[in-house]
């Protein structure tokens, strides 16, 4: 039996598929695709059970903020997550976040957070380069944004950043961070 180290900062790619890929390499595990699918199914089952017992709640104001953004003519939204698509949907649905008509890129699409972000942008904006803001809570989010030259808004207090929010209850302040 193997244990995956939960010190996320030690992983090159802090995404579900990135962590699993690195784990396979470090443990010299072959037949990765078959094992990966088995692990993913088990993980999703655990997430489903946890959500059934302890629902995921939205960050206060997030649902309304996303809804308001969806109504703006000059804004397009996409979601980029380092989680697998299926677990992200479970969590978003539990939190009551409507993801209809929102493109989502996830660890199903790529193991690299930077590539996931690029995929999310391409799915949302097919023609031209537009300003891009990423909301995240981890040092890996900030690092990816710096590398891509993307505007970053920190959600929570795990890090220090000049643009940070604890929740989405002050939409005017947040809209200033994203240039609206």
Walk me through what this model shows.
The protein is mostly helical and about 180 residues long. It has one domain (about 1-180): 3-Layer(aba) Sandwich (Rossmann fold), CATH 3.40.50.1000. The protein is about 45% helix and about 10% strand. The strands form two sheets. It has a three-stranded parallel beta sheet with strand order 3-4-5, covered by helices on one side. It has a two-stranded parallel ribbon with strand order 1-2. Helix 6 (about 140-150) links the parallel strand 3 and strand 4. Helix 2 runs parallel beside helix 4 (about 85-95). The protein is globular, with a radius of gyration of 17 Å. The model has no long low-confidence stretch (mean pLDDT about 95).
Structural features:
two-stranded parallel ribbon, 8% strand, Rossmann fold, 5 strands, HAD_2, globular, 180 residues, HAD_sf, three-stranded parallel beta sheet, mainly alpha, HAD-like_sf
